[in-house]
Amino acid sequence: MPMPKDEVQGEILNAWGTYLDALEKSLDNLEEELQEAEGMANICTDEWGEATEHYIDDLGNALFSIHEPRWASDADSRRLKALKRRLHDLYSDYKGVYQKAAQGAA
After folding, report:
1. Does 34 have pLDDT greater than 70?
2. Cβ(20)–Cβ(79) under 8 Å?
3. Is residue 10 scored above 90 in pLDDT?
4. Contact (Cβ atoms closer than 8 angstroms) between residue 13 and residue 72
5. For residue range 57-89, what is the model confidence (pLDDT) as tens digits?
6. SS3 96
7. Terminal CA-to-CA distance of the chain, rounded, Å?
8. Most buried of 11, 20, 60, 103 (most Cβ within 10 A)?
9. What is the mean pLDDT of the chain?
């Protein structure tokens, strides 16, 4: 027997919230790692830079390829936009740390 529409929407919204929470936690982890790396830019390796850039790319793919459920709340839409902006800012931070590390290695 098929699930009622309200139940399906509830399940999707629950999963949507969980997904946004996981993305936000991933951005928190990235921000923490970048802050740590900034203090040790002189010992950051190219491998660290490549791994971090891949991580940022994966987060970007996840954030920018999301299809928002049409019944998502305005608050969820604003939250997703804020996560995208935050990723952009963290990428800028990463580039700064990576350039500092490259200058220190030269």
Report:
1. yes
2. yes
3. no
4. yes
5. 999 999 999 888 777 889 988 999 999 999 999
6. helix
7. 66
8. 20
9. 87
Structure tokens at 91: 């990428």
State how far the Cα of 32 lies from the Cα of 101, in Å rounded to an integer.
17
Integer CA distances (angstroms), 87 to 32, 35, 81, 91, in order: 13, 14, 10, 6
Amino acid, single-letter form, for residue 99: Q
Cα distances from 85 to residues 2, 9, 31, 65, 89, in angstroms, run 39, 27, 13, 14, 6
Question: Could you please report the per-residue DSSP string of 46-67?
Answer: HHHHHHHHHHHHHHHHHHHT--
The reported pTM is: 0.82
